[in-house]
Amino acid sequence: MSAAVLAVREARRGVHRRQRVLLVALGALVVGLFLVRALLGDYRISFVDGIRMVTGTTIPGASFIFMESTLPRACMAVLAGAAFASAGAAYQSMLRNPLASPDVLGITLGASAAAVFAVVLLGWTGTPVALVAFAGAVGVAATIHGFAGRGGAATGRMILVGVGLAAVLSSVVHWVLLRADVYRAQDALVWLTGSLGSVSWSEITRLAVVVAVALPLLVVVTRQLGVLGLGDDLAAGLGVRAGRMRLVVTALVVLLAASATAVCGPIAFVGFLSGPIARRLSRGRTSVPAAALVGAAMVLAADHVSAYAVPGTAYPVGVVTGLAGAPVLVWLLVAGRRSLQEAS
Amino acid sequence: MTVRATTAPGMPAAHAERGTRVPTSAVVAGGVAVVAVAVALSLLVGTQAVAPADVVTALTGGAVPDDVAGIVASRVDRTLVGLVVGAAVAVCGVVLQGLTRNPLAEPGILGINSGAALAVVVGIKLFAISGVGGYVWFALAGAIVTAVVVQLLALLAPVRAQPVTMALAGAAVMATSTSIVGAILVSDQGALDVFRFWQVGSVAGRGAGIVLDVAPFLLVGFVLALSSGSVLNTVALGDDLARGLGQRVLVHRLLAAAGAILLAACATALAGPIAFVGLVVPHVVRAVVGPDHRRILVGTVFAGPVLVVVADTLGRVVAAPSEVQAGIICAVIGAPFLVGLVRRMDVT
């Protein structure tokens, strides 16, 4: 075996090893933040007590706070963060454009507009809202892809149509807020900002099922996305059917983004930033698992800060991700210009 | 020197080879005619029925009942505001899209609207302002500060990456200010109740006096932006080529950008965020008059007002007796236009 082959193999091993180390480190970060969020609130709970409560023991006082507030919020933060982040990273990678996350393209906004309409004007609650939100997101995604043209690779077109739809949908949201009485408008605003304040265990279960099914599939499918960069014809020559692959990725992205949006609203920046951050951490490689972990960590940390940073006032988590996300984006712009620019 | 950009890199070039040779005089004549029709409709149609003869009498200074005079005066005001705002936003869109060579550039995407919104919310919250006259200066200041911040962030990047960087910086500023706005509004119902009427974007209820307030800024903005046609054509050729042709690219670009920022700031101050006009009108006009930015600018001066004034008029009709704000109608009628254009575009 020649020295060149050995060198290439060694380099590849290095990349894989670094990737594994990164995933383990991010996983540890998520676990740590999860414990902080679930146990260390205004009311501190020991790790042992936490385990006992999860396994069924009731501790007066602590049980209510832990089982009905901090633990469900921590679970939801992980699920929603992972869902938004993996959807964003996969979409940015598929469309090879850092702007092309589901929130910029209006897919998340399709879900929120439909949900706000149903909640504020029709008075719906629960599962029907989730279904309507999903329908809204599917509608936007279908329109965007419908206009991508037969070649399917015209991402410029998709982005134009998506941004256009986003403008329309945000005026729909503004109009709905105007029609509602001010109490409902304020409830809707909390949700529109992205909030984990009112999650229930049934919603968590629903989102957990979606994430458990869609995320692994997305990880597998996106591994082949690099081939699309060669062009549809060459991809076909390599045995990848580009059109079908885009359809699968889009369906999974919509499912994840819409399900998360239906529960906790569009949490700013998570879908948009997790992909680029993960890419920067893994030195330019797209990694959906890393992005999902980054997103989970982001939402966990932001939710903890939003709940306890200002005593007496609990802000929606989206306020914190929005505030914290901007400097991160600026840092990415300044420090990692190349990774944002090249975009895939 | 004249530089005609036929196939501008980074720009939709589908219409370049079609060789549309509508003379500029025809563009102006057609524009004036369409604007006249839009203005006439706006003056004649409304939620309250007023006989066309009465409208004409009131406009020409004849004697009419007080209520009719009031209605006609308010229609004149909102038509005037619509004309100014439409022209400002649309021209701003041309300049921004040309400068950044980004077909998506518009005041909303570059964070200008959200910066203005943040300033307005701060004004409502801290200084208890309410009413358009009070918003104007907050919106103007917020828009200018945001735009300058976004520009500075974009300048951090190498020249080639500036379009994407600027859009990303705009997104960053937008998300931040939206978060602050959200943080203020979720804990203050009174502010929300005032703010939600501002954020839809409307030309109603603004007196003509407000236009006069911002007129100096508007004037400078229009002069800078409308004279930037040949600069934009040069930019479309790419920076290296432009430098080779001897244009002082940076100075001219900064002047054009300053004009665009002033226009966007004034428009947002007058009408609130009207997002879609700046995005869609330049594309429509480009499809009609071809890729020369000087002609696009001329066409936009007419097309922008038409869209806003017609949207405002439609908004009085579709849900009568209540009104739908012009910002919402603009988005709803602008979207099919954009989609139709995108279908024929040669963007990848």
Automatic annotation (TrEMBL), chain A:
<keyword id="KW-1133">Transmembrane helix</keyword>
<dbReference type="InterPro" id="IPR037294">
    <property type="entry name" value="ABC_BtuC-like"/>
</dbReference>
<feature type="transmembrane region" description="Helical">
    <location>
        <begin position="286"/>
        <end position="302"/>
    </location>
</feature>
<keyword id="KW-0472">Membrane</keyword>
<dbReference type="GO" id="GO:0033214">
    <property type="term" value="P:siderophore-iron import into cell"/>
</dbReference>
<feature type="transmembrane region" description="Helical">
    <location>
        <begin position="104"/>
        <end position="124"/>
    </location>
</feature>
<feature type="transmembrane region" description="Helical">
    <location>
        <begin position="21"/>
        <end position="40"/>
    </location>
</feature>
<keyword id="KW-0813">Transport</keyword>
<keyword id="KW-0812">Transmembrane</keyword>
<comment type="similarity">
    <text>Belongs to the binding-protein-dependent transport system permease family. FecCD subfamily.</text>
</comment>
<protein>
    <submittedName>
        <fullName>Iron ABC transporter permease</fullName>
    </submittedName>
</protein>
<feature type="transmembrane region" description="Helical">
    <location>
        <begin position="208"/>
        <end position="227"/>
    </location>
</feature>
<feature type="transmembrane region" description="Helical">
    <location>
        <begin position="159"/>
        <end position="177"/>
    </location>
</feature>
<keyword id="KW-1003">Cell membrane</keyword>
<dbReference type="InterPro" id="IPR000522">
    <property type="entry name" value="ABC_transptr_permease_BtuC"/>
</dbReference>
<dbReference type="GO" id="GO:0022857">
    <property type="term" value="F:transmembrane transporter activity"/>
</dbReference>
<feature type="transmembrane region" description="Helical">
    <location>
        <begin position="130"/>
        <end position="147"/>
    </location>
</feature>
<feature type="transmembrane region" description="Helical">
    <location>
        <begin position="314"/>
        <end position="334"/>
    </location>
</feature>
<dbReference type="Pfam" id="PF01032">
    <property type="entry name" value="FecCD"/>
</dbReference>
<feature type="transmembrane region" description="Helical">
    <location>
        <begin position="247"/>
        <end position="274"/>
    </location>
</feature>
<feature type="transmembrane region" description="Helical">
    <location>
        <begin position="71"/>
        <end position="92"/>
    </location>
</feature>
<dbReference type="GO" id="GO:0005886">
    <property type="term" value="C:plasma membrane"/>
</dbReference>
<feature type="transmembrane region" description="Helical">
    <location>
        <begin position="183"/>
        <end position="201"/>
    </location>
</feature>
